[in-house]
Amino acid sequence: MNLAKLPSFVDIHEDVSKALNENIPIVALESTIITHGMPFPENAEMASSVEALIREHGVVPATIAVIDGRIKIGLTAEELIKLAKVKNAMKISRADIAFAISQGKTAGTTVAATMIISRMAGIRIFATGGIGGVHKGVETSFDISADLTELGKTDVLVVAAGAKAILDVPKTLEVLETQGVPVVGYKTDSLPAFWTRRSDLAVPLRMDSAAQISDFLKVRDELQLCSGVLIANPIPKKDQIPSKIINKYIETAQTEMEANNISGKEVTPFLLKRIFELSKGESLKSNIALVKNNAIVAAKISLEFYK
Ligand code: PSU
Ligand code: MN
Predict the structure, then answer these.
(1) 175 phi and psi, to 5 degrees?
(2) pLDDT (tens digit, 0 to 9) for every residue of the chain, 307 residues total?
(3) Do 153 and 226 contact (CB within 8 A), yes or no?
(4) Cα–Cα distance between 6 and 288 in angstroms, integer?
(5) Nearest to 123 by CA among 18, 226, 11, 26
(6) For residues 206 and 200, what is the distance between their CA atoms, to the nearest angstrom?
(7) Which end of the chain is less congested by CB atoms within 10 angstroms, N or C?
(8) Which ligand is nearest to the CA of 93?
């Protein structure tokens, strides 16, 4: 990776640039989950403990965000806290990343924006909670996350706990297939549904080890497929919320969202916040647990891939 070629508005954390220069495994992490996905102080605690967990595996974490118009690849402890506390951060995807930089904004990067920045720096493996997807009621709203098209064209592997159950999961799977994105169940035949380990849907592909996934990535590189991969990793058993319970909260939140005419970027943060309130914080506990679980799997894949 020639770091000198990166744009002048990119700041790479010292540990990350060392890792890039010396081929030390790295895992990228997104920041919309910090600015829009969780309340303070849980967001800050989650972000720093996920980084610590990755380091424990001998892998360098690189949390990606935009702060005051500068792309940050890897955050200092102070930057992380600043981002977790900021009140009016943007939520940026492919459409608005350049705006945030040119206007000097502070922003959480979605899965799509984090993929773009990871790719630019040569980081291949990325962990998140759940990707964005096709929303319920898409027939009228046309709301399909830009995460799906990004997965179709940007060569980064994303570890997630499936697509969030607030989505129309069957349609999300269909779009991923159209985009040519392999969806790989990690040690599972069932597509994980974020807060629950299983859904009614079969996962298209299955692999049972980080080594298998690393081999798969290497074949993809030789084929020059140049698109993303989704690893669907189920939430740990003890952290699940039974689907009967979570689905009730999702339904209520969805009805309120429609009644309040919430649309666009606000949909996902609104739903996550209402489900958090309705579940009296239980959904957040599960969300944090599944992000940690994804970080561990991403670290293992990264270790294999850079061997
Ligand atoms: N996963 C979580 N919490 C989140 C998100 C994912 O556990 O807040 C964020 C991701 O950044 C994802 C975004 O890219 O939600 C999707 O937003 P939208 O549906 O507007 O594309
Ligand atoms: Mn959307």
Answers:
(1) -65, -40
(2) 677 789 999 999 999 999 999 999 999 999 999 999 999 999 999 999 999 999 999 999 999 999 999 999 999 999 999 999 999 999 999 999 999 999 999 999 999 999 999 999 999 999 999 999 999 999 999 999 999 999 999 999 999 998 888 999 999 999 999 999 999 999 999 999 999 999 999 999 999 999 999 999 999 999 999 999 999 999 999 999 999 999 999 999 999 999 999 999 999 999 999 999 999 999 999 999 999 999 999 999 999 999 9
(3) yes
(4) 32
(5) 26
(6) 16
(7) C
(8) 1
Distances, alpha carbon 106 to alpha carbons 99, 100, 127, 158, in Å: 11, 7, 21, 24
Q: Which atom of ligand 1 is found nearest the CA of 33?
A: 8
- Number of separate domains in the chain: 1
Pocket test for ligand 1, best of 42, 43, 50, 111 (most atoms within 8 A of CB): 111
The closest-lying atom of ligand 1 relative to the alpha carbon of residue 291 is 7
Residue 135 Cα: closest atom of ligand 1: 19
CATH number at residue 290: 3.40.1790.10
Q: What amino acid is encoded at 236 in this protein?
A: P
No. of H helices and E strands in the chain? Answer: 13, 11
Q: At what angle do helices 267-278 and 282-305 cross, to 10 degrees?
A: 120
Residues identified as active-site? 30, 164
Instruction: Give the CA distances from residue 105 to residues 38, 66, 116, in Å, rounded to whole numbers and listed in that order.
Output: 20, 7, 18
pTM of the prediction?
0.97
**What's the CA-to-centroid distance between 135 and ligand 2, angstroms?**
7
Dist. CA 68–CA 215, nearest whole Å: 39
Domain that holds residue 237: 3-305
Pocket lining: 293 vs ligand 1, CB cutoff 6 Å: no
